[in-house]
Design a protein that fits this description.
The complex is a heterotrimer. By secondary structure, chain A is an all-alpha fold. Chain A contains 13 helices and 2 strands. Chain A has one domain: MetI-like fold. In chain A, strands 1-2 form a two-stranded antiparallel sheet. The chains are: A mainly alpha, B mainly alpha, C alpha+beta. Chains in contact: A-B, A-C, B-C.
């Protein structure tokens, strides 16, 4: 078999193997996304659904100051939660990567992470509500007489969001730091760097891809959060996710829901592209093939 | 050295010829060599580099964060043994466990639904995802980058978006909402994870092994079944495990694409939370946590692979 | 050697370090002189790297002291010691260019830009990397990476440079070149070099002195010549170069000129041999006897001159290995013991290359060329 034929055959086999998944994702992921794009330019139907009439009404509705306020709040909550999450997750990932008991720590991070998310949110309700664990405990100790308003506010939403998404940050950070050559930290110390200097000038720049992945995997889901603000937030902690669902289930304004979804999709896609390009350039930098050097290693 | 060492030089060679070569060594320097050479000793990773202290900042942070992650679970599990409904401890009781196991028909029906969907969707996703990972890694063809992009986006897009787009899609193409639509949705969000895990495994695969297998007389099919598949098995298993847990856990997407009679466990829990909390949830929590722990223990080999995909 | 001796002396005293049950260092004492090229030589796991890491500050001993220029440095963290390290795996910062790698220590000290640039260029020139300074480490060959690591370690002007098997990742030919280059560098800057290696030929060729280590202990400290010619223990004799080593018993010991002519009974050779030694050894004492293969003569016919101080054996060539400038023979003596002989082919007409497999040969050596390694107690 000549190499041309082999190549052709390889291409055919590659397509045969990959086609089922490619088609599945095209039909059930990409087509629905395209429908959303389409619907966002259509007119709202009376009982949900759409009427086939081009209009920009949905986008005009989006500019409603109420929605803008929610949009900005969502941005702010997502940014703040992401920063806190990453700040907490970085030392965790580092400690896990250097530990001799990596699998044990991984299990300890993954077990709560795999536990049903609603159960975990419910647990927070049980802890924070006015007859919840914290309030009852403080009352029993005589610290307070009246229940503290710990739940149904912004603070509760941010706390629970951090709780829900911190494993998403720890895991990629751990994976990246685990591949990091810790001897570089020794080299930095040897060359005169203090311990914090060695972390900030050597470790952080070299685990950039892990940090970016962690940011993407916390920021985007939090940006589209729905359940947490619904169950532990108050009226003033509504986020875009809640608006979208309301548009679908209550107001039945599908074009507006689609327009919002499109915005989130675009934001997410930009984030993903940013992540992929920066990871790719980093990989290229680290894996660039060594140049061919003369046998003497360039010694004259 | 008490005796000056000999110096090699042509001029004194003749003289040296007559002189014995022993140089006396300071006795303190003379240590008898123990018999047998030692094998190479590798330092454990945490002792190997820098002054990484047991009670350093990062280790304390890790312990605190793990405590943060487990604290709510502990609270819920503790109160599952409480005699009263509230958060005030009134005594030990197994009432809620009794209720959970003998008086929660609907819950168990939802559990069964979840289970059926988790198993079917993760098996389909694992099969299709692994096959595609092999195809993309092994062969070069034009639409590779398309598949790579279309398989990455579902992992990061907020669940609300995927849920809504699927709801709109199913409505538009008139697929009734129910078990089947949930199965399709779960397979869709599981596929990318399996694909990623198996691809990562293939990344470490030494492709000269394929040539070796062909050289030794294996056909293409034999190479696939006897060389490639066994070596990507850890990736496939991790993918399957990940898919099962994600499917069992999913609420948001299922919320949109479910119909009458297709309530899954998370949906049932949601309704319990929204419409009157019953301490049965506490009891259920312990059962689920124990199940997850068993799963994590049984598959601890794959935890590191799974971490790499999240 | 005409060096300017600028470095510090290093004193290691009674240093021990254990990891669990494993004794990496067992009461080690070494005095390294100012400006010396000092090698720590031993097999992997012998403790040489642990000792280097203790001097650098990455590890601390369970007990003992380490003095740099007479001052105790153990309480100091690595960044406060006037010691820099060249790592085995180079440990170059992958996110920084060659230039920035070398500039790293100066940037930490906030050296002004102009001074920094001049100095970085000086050091890059010193290691002949002027043309590669904008490259990332991943674009360099192994030899180039190693030279970046050396320039980076030297730019802080340390008093002592620690080198942890710096050449082990390079191929043989490049290793030779870089070794010579390191030696020149040492002559040029005159600071103390402490060089860790498991390769005895590297250590022999560049060191002023060598400490041979095994299982956490220092077995011998001396010049390369002393270590090769007068190994202190069986281990040193076997580890440095090649040798024939046999247990022996002293049969007779007579004064002979200004030393002693000793007769040894060597069961492995099935006979007695003669060897000269400084010490008057007691009859019946157990010792180890060694003779280097290159000190043996091999001939196809019985040598004509056999003096009383010549040991002569008859044997059969089991394995001749010709390698151009020399040949090595495994000769099976009459009682079955195999002995190694190395014959240099200094002249074209020399006997040797024509000795073949299964040839009958004569192996001989002078009593002065044998050596009594160590006195075995009991």
């Amino acid at each position: 078999m000549n190499s041309h034929m082999q190549e052709k055959r390889g291409r055919r086999l590659g397509i045969t193997y990959s086609a089922p998944m490619g088609l599945w994702l095209t039909f059930f992921f990409l087509v629905p996304l395209c429908i959303i794009i389409l619907y966002s330019f259509l007119k709202k139907g009376l009982y949900g659904g759409v009427e086939w009439e081009f209009t920009l009404t949905a986008y005009r509705q989006m500019l409603n100051p109420n929605f803008m306020r929610v949009f900005l709040r969502t941005l702010w909550v997502a940014a703040l939660s992401t920063v806190i999450t990453i700040t907490l997750a970085l030392p965790c990932g580092y400690a896990m990567a250097r530990s001799r008991h990596q699998v044990m720590w991984l299990a300890l991070v993954i077990i709560p992470f795999w536990t049903n998310s609603l159960i975990r949110i419910y647990a927070w309700i049980a802890i924070l509500s006015s007859e919840g664990f914290v309030n009852e405990a403080l009352k029993a100790l005589g610290v307070i007489g009246e229940s503290l308003p710990l739940i149904y506010n912004q603070g509760a939403v941010i706390t629970v969001l951090i709780y829900m998404y911190i494993p998403f940050a720890i895991l990629p950070l751990f994976t990246t730091i685990d591949k990091f050559d810790f001897q570089l930290l020794e080299a930095a110390r040897d060359l005169g760097a203090s311990k914090p200097e060695s972390i900030f000038k050597v470790l952080i720049p070299n685990i950039r891809s892990g940090i970016i992945t962690a940011v993407i995997f916390t920021f985007i889901p939090i940006f589209g959060a729905y359940t947490v603000p619904l169950l532990v937030g108050g009226k003033d902690s509504y986020m875009i996710g809640n608006i979208i669902v309301d548009q679908v289930t209550k107001t039945r304004n599908w074009p507006l829901a689609s327009a919002f979804s499109l915005v989130i999709t675009v934001v997410s896609t930009i984030g993903v592209i940013w992540m992929m390009t920066s990871t790719a350039s980093e990989r290229a930098r680290l894996k660039a093939p060594a140049q061919v050097v003369d046998a003497n290693g360039g010694i004259s | 050295m008490s005796t000056s060492p000999k110096v090699k030089s042509a001029a004194v060679a003749a003289k040296l010829k007559k002189q014995p070569k022993k140089m006396r060594l300071e006795p303190s320097r003379l240590v008898e060599a123990p018999k047998g050479t030692p094998g190479p000793y590798k330092l454990p990773k945490n002792q190997m580099f820098q002054d990484h202290r047991k009670f350093g900042f990062s280790n304390i942070m890790l312990v605190l964060v793990i405590a943060f992650l487990f604290m709510p679970l502990f609270v819920v599990v503790t109160y599952s043994f409480n005699a009263s409904r509230g958060m005030r401890w009134t005594g030990f009781s197994l009432e809620w466990y009794y209720k959970l196991f003998f008086d929660s028909k609907e819950l168990w029906r939802a559990f069964a639904n979840s289970f059926v969907i988790a198993i079917t969707s993760s098996i389909v996703a694992t099969f299709l995802g692994s096959l595609s990972a092999i195809g993309i890694k092994w062969y070069k063809f034009k639409s590779r980058s398309y598949i790579q992009v279309v398989s990455f986006l579902p992992m990061v897009l907020p669940e609300v978006i995927i849920g809504i787009s699927m709801l709109i899609f199913f409505t538009a193409v008139k697929i009734p909402l129910g078990m089947f639509s949930i199965f399709v949705a779960h397979t869709t969000f599981n596929l990318p994870f399996v694909f990623l895990l198996v691809s990562a495994r293939l990344e470490e695969f030494d492709f000269s092994v394929i040539e070796a297998a062909r050289d030794l007389g294996a056909t293409e099919r034999q190479t696939l079944m006897k060389v490639i598949v066994p070596s990507i098995m850890p990736g496939v298993m991790s993918g399957l495990l990940m898919a099962i847990t994600m499917s069992l856990e999913d609420f948001v997407i299922t919320f949109f694409v479910s119909g009458p009679g297709s309530t899954t466990l998370p949906l049932y829990v949601y309704s319990m939370i929204r419409y009157g909390v019953s301490p049965v949830i506490n009891a259920l929590s312990l059962v689920l946590i124990l199940g997850i722990m068993l799963l994590a223990l049984g598959f601890r080999r794959f935890l590191k692979t799974i971490a790499a995909s999240s | 050697m005409g060096k300017r001796l600028k470095g510090f002396d290093v004193t290691v005293k009674d240093v021990s370090r254990a990891y669990g049950n494993f004794k990496a260092l067992d009461d080690v004492s070494i005095e390294i002189r100012k400006g010396e090229f000092f090698s720590l030589l031993g097999p992997s796991g012998c403790g040489k790297t642990t000792l280097l890491r203790i001097i650098a500050g990455f590890d601390s001993p369970d007990n003992g002291v380490v003095l740099l220029d007479g001052k105790d440095i153990l309480p100091l963290p690595p960044d406060k010691r006037q010691v820099n390290t060249v790592f085995q795996s180079y440990a170059l910062f992958p996110h920084l260019s060659v230039y920035e790698n070398v500039a790293f220590p100066l940037r930490l000290r906030k050296v002004p830009a102009g001074k920094l640039d001049a100095k970085v260029r000086d050091y890059l020139h010193l290691v002949q990397l002027d043309n590669h300074m904008d490259k990332k480490p991943s674009m360099l060959s192994g030899g180039q990476k190693q030279r970046v690591a050396i320039a980076r370690a030297l730019i802080n002007e340390p008093s002592v440079l620690l080198l942890d098997e710096p050449l082990s990742a390079l191929d043989a030919k490049l290793r030779q070149n870089l070794l010579v280059e390191l030696d020149h560098l040492h002559d040029q800057i005159g600071i103390t070099f402490i060089y860790v290696t498991h390769d005895q030929s590297e250590a022999l060729s560049v060191s002023d002195r060598i400490a041979v280590m095994n299982q956490g202990k220092v077995l011998q400290i001396g010049t390369p010549y002393e270590i090769y010619e007068s190994p202190a223990t069986d281990f040193v004799a076997r580890f440095i170069g090649e040798t024939n080593l046999f247990p022996a018993v002293v049969k007779q010991c007579d004064p002979y000129e200004d030393y002693y002519m000793t007769t040894l009974d060597i069961p492995a050779l099935g006979t007695e041999i003669k060897v000269t030694d400084y010490d008057n050894l007691a009859v019946g004492q157990h010792v180890s006897f060694t003779v280097r293969p290159e000190k043996l003569k091999i001939t196809g016919h019985q040598p004509t001159r056999v003096g009383k101080d010549i040991n002569l054996f008859r044997g059969i060539v089991e394995e001749p290995i010709y390698s151009g400038f020399q040949s090595k023979y495994y000769v099976s003596l009459e009682n079955g013991t195999v002995i190694k002989v190395i014959q240099q082919h200094a002249n074209y007409m020399d006997e040797g290359p024509d000795i073949d497999w299964k040839d009958q040969v004569f192996v001989s050596w002078s009593a002065e060329d044998g050596y009594i390694v160590e006195v075995v107690d009991s």
